[in-house]
Amino acid sequence: MTKESAMAKAPKDLDDAGVLAYLKANPDFFNAHPDALPGAQQGKGVVDFQQVLLEKLKNDKSHAQRVQKELIENVRANMNNQSRIQTAVLVVLEAESFEEFIETVTQDLPVLLDVDTVNLIIESTSKEIPFINQAGIRFARAGTVKKWLSTGDALLQNNINGHEELFGPGAGLVKSHALVWLEISQNTPAGIIAFGSRDPEAFQPNQAVDQIGFLAQVVERCFRIWLDVQA
Question: Which CATH number fits domain 66-227: 1.10.3720.10, 3.20.20.70, 3.30.450.40, 2.60.120.260?
Answer without folding.
Answer: 3.30.450.40
